Amino acid sequence: MRPKKDASAASKRQPFRSEPAEEEQLIAGRNPVLEALKSDQPLDTIYLSGTNGTLHQIAALAKEKNILVKMVSDAALSKMTHQAVHQGVAASGACGQYVSVEAILQAAREKQEAPLLVICDEIQDPHNLGAIIRTAEAAGAHGIIIPKRRSASLTVTVGKTSAGAASWLPVARVSNLVQAMETLKENGVWIYGTDASGSPYTDVDFTGGTAFVIGSEGFGIGRLVGEHCDGLLRLINTPENVFADSKLYLDIYILGLPFVFFYNVATGIFSALGDSKTPF
Prior knowledge:
The protein is of the alpha/beta class. It is 36% helix and 20% strand. It has eleven helices and eleven strands. The chain has helices at 30-38, 54-64, 74-80, 101-110, 126-139, 156-161, 177-186, 223-227, 239-242, 246-253, 257-272; strands at residues 26-28, 43-48, 68-71, 89-93, 98-99, 116-120, 143-147, 171-174, 189-200, 209-214, 231-234. The strands form two sheets. It has a seven-stranded parallel β-sheet with strand order 5-8-7-6-10-9-11, with helices on both faces. Strands 1-4-2-3 form a four-stranded mixed β-sheet, with helices on both faces. Helix 1 packs parallel to helix 2 and helix 5 (126-139) runs parallel beside helix 11 (257-272). It is elongated and about 60 Å long. The protein starts with 25 loop residues before the first strand and ends in an 8-residue tail after the last helix. The relative contact order is 0.16.
């Protein structure tokens, strides 16, 4: 029986922008988007203003390839594409291909390693997601799990912020984080939420399969996700004691306690296992 700890509920969430940032690369037009889908070009999100004719075919193909589809107005599409002839559809490029949770677990098994994952609960700033991916990859994590909705995704900005790590570290985008967490538990992975009210992370043995949940900016871990964690953990030292490099410290401090927590714990894991690989 897994021990469960209560997590504080987040009463509300920050509004999530449904349109891509201006710097994201967009493909506009029915034929360009359709051909991009057929050629397996990495795409993050398809934006549609309707579902008739070719748009229906695009939506069906996007669903088949597990690419997020968002319905927007023609006016929104015109704004996103800077008044280009979009024909009711646009697509944002991705910096990598999404994988399944099962694929991440299988990769760990093939390496004969205990799974180490990071679950991002509605991290909405692409710069923050990129920073998490960069640190997780350097720490030796096997993958990242993000939700399909209300979350940053593998956009061009995330790829740049991750310093290329997003092209190497597998990322699973799931419809339901709680279901993904249950899949991890069925495969022997223990899940810990990062929260200031939790127990000191030094009280836990991390040598088995482990996943850390990082909550959203400002509001932390959601209620349901928190209730499905095996426990809540906190740091016992400050960012200043972990990072001497000022630029690195500023990068990490943007995310607050959870990100510093992951760095510190991941370093401890590899140190305990006698692994010379440490973050950065």
